[in-house]
Amino acid sequence: MPGKAPSTTNINNIAGVLEYCVQNKYLSGDEAESIEGSLKGKLSGMPPSSNTPYSESAYIDGAYADGVKGILHGKDGKPVNLAGKGLKAAATKQICDTVLSTAKSML
Q1: For residues 96 and 82, is the Cβ–Cβ distance under 8 A?
Q2: Exposure check for the chain: N or C terminus, fewer CB within 10 A?
């Protein structure tokens, strides 16, 4: 998967994974946080502020909640666990960079 676009088109899951990547320091900086906040603003019922935890939202989507835990959904239904012990930090960073690019295209 590294180097390829994430195989999910689920904006909720991309938003959650983006939050995971920012919170776990795989992505940093104003751009990543701004895109995270903007993408969350596009989700139904989600608070636009990236500082508001998803649990405070009236709308909790399973795909988003999975993403926050580091689980990227694939089109084939197979999840990729970014928090899993099998992935090296460099691979997770590369996936997070790709998720950020995908998030930009969804805005």
Answers
A1: yes
A2: C
